[in-house]
Each structure stands twice: as C-alpha cells, then as structure tokens.
Specification:
This protein is an all-alpha fold and about 140 residues long. The protein is about 80% helix and about 0% strand. The chain has one domain. One of its GO terms (molecular function) is metal ion binding. It catalyses: protoporphyrinogen IX + 3 A = protoporphyrin IX + 3 AH2.
Length: about 140
Amino acid sequence: MTFAVLYTWMKAVHVASAFVFVAGVSVLSLVLVADAPNTAHSGSATARWRRWNRIVITPAMLLTWVFGLGLAMQGHWLGYTWLSAKVGLVVLLSGIHGAQSRALRLRAAGQQASVWRLTPLIVATATLAILGLAVAKPF
C-alpha cells in the first residue's frame, strides 16, 4: 500500500470517528442538560445512554485520537501552532466526554449529577474551531 493510499484511509477513519465522537458528545450534552434526573423514565434512559456511550462514543473518541496522532506524525505537523491549538480543543472535548460519563454513572446510581448548561455551546464552538484549524492550518 502506498503512502498516499494509507494516508487517505487514515484520514477517512479519523474524520468518520471524529464525526461520531462529536455527534455523541453533542447529543449527550443536550440530553444531560435537558433530562431532569428525577423523572420516572430517567433510570432506563440513563442505562441506555451509558451503554451507547460505552459501545459507540468512547471507542470513537479513542479512534479519533489514534488516527489523528498518526496523521500528525505522517504529515510532520507536530510542533505546529495550529495543531497544538487543535489538540488543546480535542483535550477539552475529551474532558467534557469524561464529565458526561461521570454524570451518567452517578445518575445510574440514583445520585444527582449536575451538568453545566453551556456545555452544548462549548462543544459546538470547539468543534467549529477544530474544523477551521484542520482545514485552514492558519499558523
């Protein structure tokens, strides 16, 4: 397999997994903010969201990191400012995902888990900034 073909497939997997990861974090942000933990359906809904998080969102995040770092190494972009900014934003999204996982775990145990109401806006803004940095590579 040539370098160009390998790079193209790595980029395709990275973009697809990033899409699933960001979509999952976005939906969880909205669900956790909108769903009051004391509603009657909350227990079963929380269990379904935890399973979806474990089976889909977490693996997508890990694939995004693995293939993103692989692309950065292949492209010789390590040390570029735009990549450092992008990685910082991906760390932020990964941290939000960790906080969401914790909130789901607490709610499944019947405990209160507050979620910052601006999380959906932060996720959307970080995602747009990541896209801009990845496409334009401005600095």
